[in-house]
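Handout, page 2. Input:
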Amino acid sequence: MSGTLDYPLSLAVEDFVPVVLTGAGAALLIGPLRRHSVRGGRSGAAGTALILLGGLSKAVWKLVVALDGPDLQVMNKALFPCLSAGFLLLAHALLTLPAAGGPEPPGGRGTPPLWGVAAAWTATGVVGLLLTSTAPHMVLTIVAVTVCAVRLILLARSHRDTAAAAAGGLWLTGMYVLGPLAARPDQSVALQWVEQSANTLTQGAFVLLAWRLARHRHTAPSLAPSPPSPQAERRRA
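Output:
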């Protein structure tokens, strides 16, 4: 092993599972987002690529260390900067969708501009450099994930999909727990197994959420909520 790092090969290989699950969940949202708007689809695709890049970077680093390779800390520390950028882009794409049960915002009003998203990520990076820590990007990742999860849960509820909404709640809860765990300096093998097992379950919930929402594209042109039926309108009146 490299230095004091002691990662068994089985731990390093398992680390790729939640990475693939997270990427798959985000990728499932690209098509429905693109159906709503080309720009939203592009933001979702770019976000998915960055999410995969961050996860694969750390997973490959861990695998290299487990195989007695060099300790490439740049790959380890790329996790949260990439995740924060990826989930910010995904959140931006999801925010372009109309509110549940509401009209589509004209001209995208109410959605933060992309330059604002880029400015927030850059400012967070500057703070991280000053503190010589990736903790600011970890916090930004949690904020962006919260926006994504809340938006997806609201969309699930608008489609009356209780299972998807519950999966969204599980995903969000898991992400709140995983961030601080991953940021702890004492990354023992036992802690890593707990973290990765929880991460696998958490990202599995994300895949279920995204898959169930993507299925609604067969009855609606995008992830956006379907308009109420005439019968529902008459009951409301």
